[in-house]
Amino acid sequence: MGIKVKNSDSVHAAKKEWQRERLAELTKNVVERADELCVAREKFETETLARSNKELYGILSEVYGLFKRAVADECLKETVAAMKTALTARGIRVQVNTPALTLFVRYVFNSDRKRAYNYASTLMAAAQADVEPADLAEFIESKNGVEECKKEFRKKEETVKKEAAVAGAVVSVLEDLRTMQAQEVVTLADTDVELAEGTQFAFVVARVAGNGTLELLQVVSKTTVGMENAAIKELAKQHIAKKAAEVKAELLTRDKAATSAAAASLTLRELELA
């Protein structure tokens, strides 16, 4: 009797169908567990909300664990789609820029965006700190509650944005330094400078004499990578501040009616740079 060989197309189709069924089952399991958490959340809100946050932290731990499970099972995309459909059916509008973790929170807590954001920010702060779901309650308590966790996460977000802005400004500053004309050329004694690999600039120690005058004292004999990076980073911050001041100054010029209100928010430094 001859051996029958399955057609490669049929094998591929069977494998694809198996993967689809597996994803559907994994998604179903996650959503069903989220539904159970909805019931637990309702019980918490009606029976124990006034007494303790312990149960809230427990539910948040479960939501966090469920999210990580969906990621590990590679069914996050399908789960999010199912939850979004269910939320829409509940009359809850979900924006396209809503983070997946926030969607999990909204699904379980059936809450408004502000509350969901507070809880999701707490979970994101935990994720950034590599906290495991089992340790979430302890993490929240160590930070003095959900509100403080949210503040910490927002602070980190702002820090990341600032760092990105500085990194972008560093590129502009380096280009300016390489191409700008010297304001003045001076001759100092002992000006031999050792440049560490990757560095381009020398440093001069100067005394601030006032009225915009600097007294050049001595050349630093070696430029290190750390020195140069720190100096260029500070110049990048100056660059950002100057650009911000220019934008404000332009708004002042453009809108005379709002001059007083706009000027009130300008700092002395911004006025100097404008």
Q: Notable features of this structure?
A:
single chain, 274 residues, mainly alpha, two-stranded parallel sheet, 10 helices, 4 strands, elongated
Describe this structure in words.
There is one protein chain. This protein is mainly alpha-helical and 274 residues long. The protein has two domains: 13-142; 181-273, no CATH class. The protein has helices at residues 8-48, 54-72, 76-89, 100-109, 113-128, 136-142, 146-179, 225-254, 259-264, 268-273, and strands at residues 194-195, 204-210, 213-219, 222-223. It has a two-stranded parallel ribbon with strand order 1-4. A two-stranded antiparallel ribbon has the order 2-3. Helix 2 crosses helix 4, helix 3 (76-89) crosses helix 4 (100-109) and helix 4 (100-109) crosses helix 5. The protein is elongated, with a radius of gyration of 29 Å.
Write a concise synopsis of the structure shown.
This protein has helices at 8-48, 54-72, 76-89, 100-109, 113-128, 136-142, 146-179, 225-254, 259-264, 268-273; strands at residues 194-195, 204-210, 213-219, 222-223. The protein is mainly α. Strand 2 and strand 3 form a beta hairpin.
Question: What is the topology?
Answer:
Blueprint: H1 8-48, H2 54-72, H3 76-89, H4 100-109, H5 113-128, H6 136-142, H7 146-179, E1 194-195, E2 204-210, E3 213-219, E4 222-223, H8 225-254, H9 259-264, H10 268-273
Parallel strand pairs: 1-4
Antiparallel strand pairs: 2-3
Arrangement of strands in the largest sheet: 1-4
As a percent range, the share of helical residues equals 55-70%
Which range does the strand content fall in?
Answer: 5-15%
Listing every helix as H and every strand as E from the N terminus to the C terminus, the arrangement reads HHHHHHHEEEEHHH
Major sheet description: 2 strands, parallel
**Given the C-alpha coordinates, what overall shape results?**
elongated
**Would you report the number of β strands?**
4
Number of domains: 2
Q: Helical segment tally?
A: 10
Distance between the ends: 91 Å
Uncertain parts: 256-268
Oligomer: single chain
- Roughly how many Å is the radius of gyration? 29 Å
User: What structural class should be given to the helix and strand makeup?
Assistant: mainly alpha
Average the pLDDT over all residues and give the rounded result: 81
